Amino acid sequence: MNHLENLSREELEKLIEAYALSWLAHDGCWFLASEEKYGIDNAIELDTKAWERFAPIEAKRIMKVFNIEAGGGLKALEKVLKHRMYSLLNEQSFEWKNDTALVFKMVDCRVQNTRKQKGFEAFPCKQVGLVEFTNFAKAVDPRIQTKCISCPPDEVYSYYCGWEFTINL
Question: Is 44 inside any structural domain?
Answer without folding.
Answer: yes
